[in-house]
């Protein structure tokens, strides 16, 4: 922190000790992402008065993109236009027809050979070879790709295009199930990002009487904020039980695992739903094998009707990751987003996976007649056999308020891009991409914590996409408990993040908004360059030191008054 900013910060802190807290109290009621927008405004105002660079470590949007599957997407687009003109072409007005299936695979191979110098052409040729090994009819596959990228048809099936579902399903087996096929096949619903998957899931659970106002649900915290906020909306009004990750490592820092005493809460059969982000957001740690086995045992022996929603978006940043969807496929629905791993937040690509034998369908079948009658009326437009409509297909219908089910589904160009992301990972048999993605976030993690002078032990469960800095724990180590208690008495925790934004141009998110410790901050390790994380660590250290300076001044003043 520069000398001028440091002096201004000290003076502001002296004034702020007994200031009115109306502003902080109002901000506390905002969602963390609304707070982040406010913090960005603070940081930009400070930027106008200095030559510093704004560093936004609050957002989870990565600063990388996977280029090869995108280049393949664009190359396919040129071929799709050729195919469209084969079926219909009106010169002068740029109108063409719809790509057709017959002979399309051979024509595509010829097209790719004409672009043989491009890496994307090699990728697509390898993709055709991979598809052939899977037994796919290549003409039909190429038709799905060309019509899909052209966006000339509604998504059919609405839930997900046929080959897209097959290929993405294989990708999930590789990344979430340890590479093995499930005992029971699962179905996929392609959605507009993971957030859409969350919304559709909650709405379908409510619409089918699987959760109702006043029901108990559990959240494994800290957790991504929508899972904290959605249950309390008047649409759902659920009674939330927190399962807290409170374990500590040998070095006295958080290990972000769940003690048995917390997991035992799930033995209560009145808890109907459990939501978990694994690896966690914001701590960014995979659930330990001990906790997994404990949870599995509790579900199988004490709460067999527990519905589980697991958000697996960060699983690809942990080598050998396995989802709860692998351990408890009957009870679990998995939401997986392509946004972080492939740098594709703007594409809005995600899938929800549900086993073909699942708790959701069985609980719907066991509903009393008065409720099944209501559902029969709700879904009557979908066909005569409403009891036979599976939960995942009800999700699709509910995503369009049932009446518009025929126009449901993720845009077909998005599904083709999703398929190419999945194919890149499936064909990367040496794991080159995964190794580099993990290396990037871990190098940034190490740089941040080295600048904080807090030693973090290696942990194979650490995804490292985010990091939480517990300011209370850190301040005790540096300045002692007396200072920490003074800090908590005289300032609100939000004071730290707002002051950091205004005085240094660094934006982070307060951990309290994620049900992390109140005096903590979340730093995204995905969206800045490695050297920026040293700057963040240095400035966070300097700001805490400035608070300590004000404390020391007050101690000295009090001592003088007593003497």
UniProtKB/TrEMBL annotation:
<keyword id="KW-0456">Lyase</keyword>
<dbReference type="InterPro" id="IPR004839">
    <property type="entry name" value="Aminotransferase_I/II_large"/>
</dbReference>
<dbReference type="GO" id="GO:0006520">
    <property type="term" value="P:amino acid metabolic process"/>
</dbReference>
<comment type="similarity">
    <text>Belongs to the class-I pyridoxal-phosphate-dependent aminotransferase family.</text>
</comment>
<keyword id="KW-0032">Aminotransferase</keyword>
<dbReference type="Pfam" id="PF00155">
    <property type="entry name" value="Aminotran_1_2"/>
</dbReference>
<feature type="domain" description="Aminotransferase class I/classII large">
    <location>
        <begin position="209"/>
        <end position="535"/>
    </location>
</feature>
<dbReference type="InterPro" id="IPR050596">
    <property type="entry name" value="AspAT/PAT-like"/>
</dbReference>
<dbReference type="InterPro" id="IPR015424">
    <property type="entry name" value="PyrdxlP-dep_Trfase"/>
</dbReference>
<dbReference type="GO" id="GO:0016829">
    <property type="term" value="F:lyase activity"/>
</dbReference>
<protein>
    <recommendedName>
        <fullName>Aminotransferase</fullName>
        <ecNumber>2.6.1.-</ecNumber>
    </recommendedName>
</protein>
<dbReference type="InterPro" id="IPR004838">
    <property type="entry name" value="NHTrfase_class1_PyrdxlP-BS"/>
</dbReference>
<keyword id="KW-0808">Transferase</keyword>
<dbReference type="InterPro" id="IPR015422">
    <property type="entry name" value="PyrdxlP-dep_Trfase_small"/>
</dbReference>
<dbReference type="InterPro" id="IPR015421">
    <property type="entry name" value="PyrdxlP-dep_Trfase_major"/>
</dbReference>
<dbReference type="GO" id="GO:0008483">
    <property type="term" value="F:transaminase activity"/>
</dbReference>
<dbReference type="InterPro" id="IPR022518">
    <property type="entry name" value="Aspartate_4-decarboxylase"/>
</dbReference>
<keyword id="KW-0663">Pyridoxal phosphate</keyword>
<dbReference type="GO" id="GO:0030170">
    <property type="term" value="F:pyridoxal phosphate binding"/>
</dbReference>
């Amino acid at each position: 922190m520069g000398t001028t900013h440091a002096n201004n910060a000290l003076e502001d802190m002296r004034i702020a000790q007994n200031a009115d807290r109306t502003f902080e109290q109002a901000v506390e009621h905002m969602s963390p992402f609304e707070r982040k927008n406010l913090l960005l405004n603070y940081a930009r105002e400070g930027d106008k008065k200095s030559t510093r660079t704004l560093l936004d470590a609050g957002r989870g949007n990565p600063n990388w993109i996977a280029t090869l599957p995108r280049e393949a997407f664009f190359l396919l687009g040129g071929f799709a236009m050729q195919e469209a003109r084969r079926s219909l072409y009106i010169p002068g007005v740029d109108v063409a027809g719809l790509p057709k299936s017959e002979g399309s695979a051979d024509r595509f191979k010829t097209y790719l050979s004409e672009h043989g110098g491009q890496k994307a052409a090699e990728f697509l040729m390898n993709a055709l070879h991979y598809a052939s090994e899977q037994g796919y009819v290549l003409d039909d596959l190429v038709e799905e790709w060309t019509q899909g990228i052209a966006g000339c048809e509604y998504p059919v099936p609405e839930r997900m295009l046929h080959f897209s579902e097959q290929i993405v399903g294989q990708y999930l087996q590789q990344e979430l199930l340890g590479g093995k096929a499930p005992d029971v096949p699962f179905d996929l619903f392609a959605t507009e990002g993971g957030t859409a998957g969350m919304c559709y899931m909650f709405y379908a659970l409510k619409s089918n009487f699987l959760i109702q106002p006043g029901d108990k649900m559990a959240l494994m915290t800290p957790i991504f904020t929508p899972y904290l906020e959605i249950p309390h909306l008047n649409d759902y009004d659920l009674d939330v039980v927190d399962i807290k990750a409170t374990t500590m490592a040998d070095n006295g820092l958080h290990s972000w695992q769940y003690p048995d005493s917390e997991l035992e809460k799930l033995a209560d059969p009145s808890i109907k739903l459990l939501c978990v982000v694994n690896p966690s957001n914001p701590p960014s740690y995979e659930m330990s094998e001990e906790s997994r086995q404990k949870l599995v045992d509790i579900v199988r022996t004490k709460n067999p009707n527990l519905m589980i929603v697991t958000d697996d978006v960060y699983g690809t940043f942990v080598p050998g990751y396995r989802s709860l969807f692998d351990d408890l496929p009957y009870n679990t629905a998995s939401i997986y987003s392509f946004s972080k791993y492939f740098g594709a937040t703007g594409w809005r690509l995600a899938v929800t996976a549900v086993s073909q034998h699942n708790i959701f369908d069985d609980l719907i079948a066991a509903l009393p007649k008065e409720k099944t009658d209501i559902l029969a009326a709700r879904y009557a437009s979908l066909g005569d056999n409403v009891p036979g409509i599976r939960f995942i297909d009800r999700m699709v219908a509910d995503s369009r308020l049932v009446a518009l089910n025929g126009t449901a589904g993720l845009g077909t160009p998005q599904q083709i891009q999703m398929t190419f992301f999945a194919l890149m990972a499936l064909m990367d048999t040496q794991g080159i991409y995964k190794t580099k993605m993990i290396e990037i976030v871990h190098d940034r993690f190490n740089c941040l914590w080295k600048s904080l002078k807090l030693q973090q032990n290696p942990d194979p469960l650490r995804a490292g996409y985010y990091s939480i800095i517990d300011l209370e724990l850190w301040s005790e180590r540096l300045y002692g408990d007396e200072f920490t208690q003074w800090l908590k008495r005289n300032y609100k925790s939000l004071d730290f993040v707002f002051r950091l934004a205004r005085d240094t141009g660094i934006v982070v998110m307060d951990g309290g908004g994620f049900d992390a410790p109140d005096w903590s901050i979340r730093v995204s390790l995905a969206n800045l360059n490695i050297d920026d994380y040293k700057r963040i660590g240095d400035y966070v250290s300097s700001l805490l030191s400035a608070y300590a300076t004000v404390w020391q001044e007050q101690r000295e003043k009090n001592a003088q008054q007593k003497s």
